[in-house]
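Notes from the 1:1 (GR / supervisor)

We went over the backlog. Supervisor wanted to see one worked example end to end before approving the batch request, so GR pasted a single chain during the call. The sequence is below; no edits were made to it. Supervisor asked that the structure be written out right there so they could see what the output format looks like.
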Amino acid sequence: MMDNEADIRIKEQALTERIKAAGKLAVAFSGGVDSTYLVYKAHEVLGDNAIAVTIRSQVLINEDFEWTVEFCKKIGVKQVVIECDVFDSEQFENNPPDRCYYCKKMDFDAIKKAAAEYGITEVADGSNIDDTGDYRPGMRAMKELGIVSPLKESGLTKNDIRALSKEADLPTWDKPAAACLASRFVYGEKITTEGLIRVANAEKFIRDMGFRGIRVRVHGDIARIEAAPDDIELLTYGRTRKEISDELKRLGFKYVTIDIDGYRTGSMNEVLNIKEGSSNE
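Structure output shown during the call:
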């Protein structure tokens, strides 16, 4: 039985009614916990009147993209894939603190145009109630474009969504938080294609060793590894530590460090003294 089951059922019903009221809905689908549940629910409620739209760009891990394709096929929802070059935006490449605004503006403008081709005017993202009040410049772009957030509107928290996902037997119910690869770079440092590939390969190498929720943060030629607190000691074991150090240096990092504070969302905002949280997970 879920914690606060009656409360969750009320929120779940509110979500169902919200989706039903839309009539047709396009869901921005990245393969994370929230957007996966929203795609599942929208398809359950609206059938063929719901579509999933995935932006495929340099900041989406390839394995995550491939997983979105498999999931959509499995549940029978139509997926529209949009190829996008994030470097079309000079602001993205320069990586200012509000980088996410420019990226989301570009992404959701493309999603709206794709949805319109299917006669769909309402586009949804997977934001939940826990995102309220966070430092998320991308939300400003979504507000300007009229993007809706049914999960948030229904009062669903991240824990609620995980519980409902588990009940629905969705494989993402316990998936670690995810964010685009651009969130690994310290603000002001130019983002390059090579840098994104380096980070993706570094994190994949560590994940393949059995670690979940890993972040490799980039500070020039320094790789700062964030991991779950319980995994920090495991990362420092002689052989494991050496294998990680050797591989990351082979990929091009000069120094490899482990952050003893562990993984936390928005760590790149700490230098800006931003207290509320961040889109930089």
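Supervisor's comment: The two ends are 30 Å apart (CA to CA).
Batch request approved.
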